[in-house]
Amino acid sequence: MDSNGLPHGHCYEVDVMSVVLLDKAIELSSFGGKAFQLGSAVRSGLPVPHGYAISYDLVNQIVNGNKNAFKEIDLIIGNLTLPFAVRSSAIDEDGLMSSYAGIYKTILGINDATGLFSAINEIACSGQATQAIAYRKRLGLTAPSQVAVIIQQMVCSELSGVIFTRNPLTGMDERMIEACWGLGESIVSGRITPDRYTVNRGATSIEIFTGRQETAIYPAKEGGTKEVKLDSQGINNACLLENHIRQLDHLATRCEQIFGKDLDIEWAFSDNRLYLLQCRKITTRGGISH
């Protein structure tokens, strides 16, 4: 195996560096902003799920049906534990000063190669969607969107959400956390009103607003995700404990040391372990939008 977890000596009509471990995704022009940022997080020792960055050129070859490009992806499938999460990483997406949150697709719960290639195609096509084109025009970008892809082991989370290192509603120097049971898709889709926590630095003062959560989203055994009804305990109780909040405050501090102030951090807990899913600059004040 080489340093990217690929067999030595394989040679196809595609660039071997089209597939790299996340910590080696150092070329923005090939792997996009999100992969570049996650790579920086991995190199800094942050708890990012294991995964690979797939270059825009290789994604384009997959979309065009290049069988040798398929072989490149086949080589890494065995190095990841099912299920997979497949995320967009557009070349100009999710830089620290601009965010395409919600514009491009993320596909969760992929459990076989067929689903993986379908997800890559779907994410590549999302760059040409009306919503993406309109958003790019508002940013003054007229060139076609170039979408690279990230393939990661999916975090089958019991708790998920976001933490803002500065309150995006008031601008105050305090953490704001939004949290839900299960996958963060519940927050993104607007299905629930998440629990909200206002926390000082160091997490010695915590103010809790319990949201309205009647359902949660979890991975489905057959692939994809499923929405399930919560029991009375899940409906009536805030989902985070003090220990979770302290861990999130510590993660926020580490991210600030690496990426600077005013961050919007997506996180998940699985088996009591905290994972960083994404980190970007806060791009909204006066309202939270994901």
From TrEMBL:
Gene3D superfamilies: ATP-grasp fold, A domain, ATP-grasp fold, B domain. SUPFAM superfamilies: Glutathione synthetase ATP-binding domain-like. Residues 80-285 form the Pyruvate phosphate dikinase AMP/ATP-binding domain. This is Pyruvate phosphate dikinase AMP/ATP-binding domain-containing protein. InterPro entries: ATP_grasp_subdomain_1, PEP_Utilizing_Enz, PPDK_AMP/ATP-bd. It comes from Paenibacillus psychroresistens. The lineage of its organism: Bacteria, Bacillati, Bacillota, Bacilli, Bacillales. GO terms for molecular function: ATP binding; kinase activity.
